[in-house]
Amino acid sequence: MTHQPLNTEWSTEATAARRDNYYAASQRKFVPFKDPIVFQKGSMQYLWDAEGNKYTDLLGMNVCISVGHSHPTVVAAAMEQAQQLTHCTTMFYHPTPAHLAEELAATMPKGHEWVVHFTNSGSEAVDLAMTMARSYTGNLDLLALRTAYHGPTASAQSLTGISGWRHPGMPGNVAFVAEPNQYRGIFGENAGAAPYLDEIDQTIRTATTGQIAGMFVESVQGYGGIIEMPKGYMSGAAERVRAAGGLYIADEVQSGFGRTGDHMWGFEADGVVPDIVVMAKGLGNGFPIGAVVAKKEIAAPMAEKFMFHTYGANPTSCAAGRAVLQVIREDKVMENAKTVGSALLARLHELKDKHAAIGDVRGRGLMLAIEMVKDRKTKEPDAATTSAVFEHCRAQRLILSKSGPFQSSLRMVPPMCLTLEDVDRVAGGLDQAFSSL
Ligand code: PMP
């Protein structure tokens, strides 16, 4: 039997009607554009809507597309695997996930034995890391940052500080520390890491049992609005949390796979060696996969009980993951993120010099943001201007993302094959958008 045509109906209205009728309200809510877009096709950093308009995807389909939409190498690897054997649970052995585990372990800091537990998503990996930290330490309390985002499952939500993403009924035992935001953090502009590290100590003393299971830190915060950790913060946080019996857990779901331009993993910028690393998104370049990579001894106690993710280590997603790592290596993807990201950052700074609505420009590699304010002195966040610029950009076929606790930042996390010519178009488009406010 040949399969039925994937789609015969591409009109926005018909798709919208089906969504309205058959998606739960929770799945329909997060549509940031005024008018919906139906995407039909993707190739590398570009997308095409159902009317044939071409867009530059600065959102990387929510940071999932690390090396390019429908990247031919990744698609070919996944297709070959799917045709041979689409799924093989971890009850049985299969070489593809075993190879990927070895390759991921090899990307971790030397001097430790690293092991991998595959999941299907970032939040499942976060949940697993929570359980792993609690099993290993015997402690319950966790720390996270106020503007953190760690995922939609109930436990990952409990670690998510941003209130707009928190729903009723989350599990507890999480204390939040202030994010070391160098633009609008509680200790003022460019306060560095030190006062925020003291705050971790104070929080442990005042808001926890004093016995910590672990601290989760996004090496660069994504939904928080691209908040970089200042020098010394990640290593200092690891010291403090370890002194309280806990583990340091790096969430690399957005910042990993060379996106920061300098290192494969964001935590490497601070020389810290995490106990557990959580990853997803870019690993599959759009195929669903997540992973917890942990020091061997830390993962061991969990084996006293069963833990089984039905689709974990799915060979098709793992074949995609192996191809992603190959492309990152062979196509010098990280190096491109550095060159093109630096060029884009320089252009964003020029825009800040020209347009008073921009309060801050930040990030590194291809993980960048601009934040809009009503007044540069008061730094009052300006969500309305952010939305207006966002819509103007859409009209110019640039897909960005609004983010941050005040929805006042525009986040840029494109596929890492973005080029210098794209940078020209993006900077020109943003300039026009700000000029037409
Ligand atoms: N951690 C971070 C830093 C994320 O950005 C996300 C997803 N946006 C997650 C965890 C959760 O990943 P997923 O949506 O795949 O469950």
UniProtKB/TrEMBL annotation:
InterPro entries: Aminotrans_3, Aminotrans_3_PPA_site, PyrdxlP-dep_Trfase, PyrdxlP-dep_Trfase_major, PyrdxlP-dep_Trfase_small
Cofactors: pyridoxal 5'-phosphate
EC numbers, comma separated: 2.6.1.44
PROSITE patterns referenced in this protein's UniProt entry, alphabetically: AA_TRANSFER_CLASS_3
Presence of keyword Transit peptide: yes
UniProt keyword terms in alphabetical order: Aminotransferase, Pyridoxal phosphate, Transferase, Transit peptide
GO molecular function: alanine-glyoxylate transaminase activity; pyridoxal phosphate binding
UniProt cross-references to CDD domains, sorted A to Z: OAT_like
Domain of life of the native organism: Bacteria
Name of the top EC class for this enzyme: transferase
Record's subunit section: Homotetramer.
Record family assignment: Belongs to the class-III pyridoxal-phosphate-dependent aminotransferase family.
Protein name: alanine--glyoxylate transaminase
Gene encoding the protein: davT_1
